[in-house]
Design a protein that fits this description.
Length: 154
């Protein structure tokens, strides 16, 4: 009898916890759009510094190499991360994940580094991937307001 009572008490305590974990939240503009197949490459980090710029899991934020300024009318900065994933895997991560956050790829340039330019309605982003000397990749991301389209002169 005591065992059944203890089981019921534990079960009653776990149900609210399980419901809290299962609660869904409405999508915000920073969250990725659904659709398309899930990438089998590098996983997404559980959280990242800039809500609409995804970062692969396992990369450490480098505060000394980063600068961010945000207010209600301006979102600009440079953030830096370092991790042990191969540069090609990291490049594929950004090509797969950025469109899920409404970024459009403009171009990619490769030499010793890989530089990718992305654009969205009111923001631009440059991602530079550099192989680390020992192993892994350095990620440098610059983001800034999109330049206004030139107006025609009469």
């Amino acid at each position: 009898m005591k065992l059944k009572l203890a089981f019921v008490i534990v079960l009653c305590m776990l149900v609210p916890i399980a419901e809290g974990c299962a609660t869904s939240r409405a999508a915000t503009p920073a969250e990725p759009t659904s659709g398309g197949d899930i990438s089998s490459g590098l996983p997404l980090a559980p959280d990242f510094r800039i809500p609409d710029i995804p970062i692969p899991a396992g990369f450490e934020f480098d505060r000394a190499g980063s600068f961010v300024f945000q207010n209600s009318s301006l979102d600009v900065g440079k953030i830096q991360y370092a991790g042990n994933s191969p540069i090609n895997d990291v490049a594929q991560f950004f090509l797969d994940e950025m469109p899920r956050y409404h970024w459009k790829i403009l171009n990619v340039a490769e030499h010793q580094t890989i530089t990718m330019f992305f654009d969205k309605e009111n923001k631009s982003c440059q991602v530079i991937l550099t192989p680390k000397t020992i192993r892994g990749t350095l990620i440098q991301i610059s983001f800034y307001p999109k330049a206004a389209a030139p107006t025609e002169r009469e």
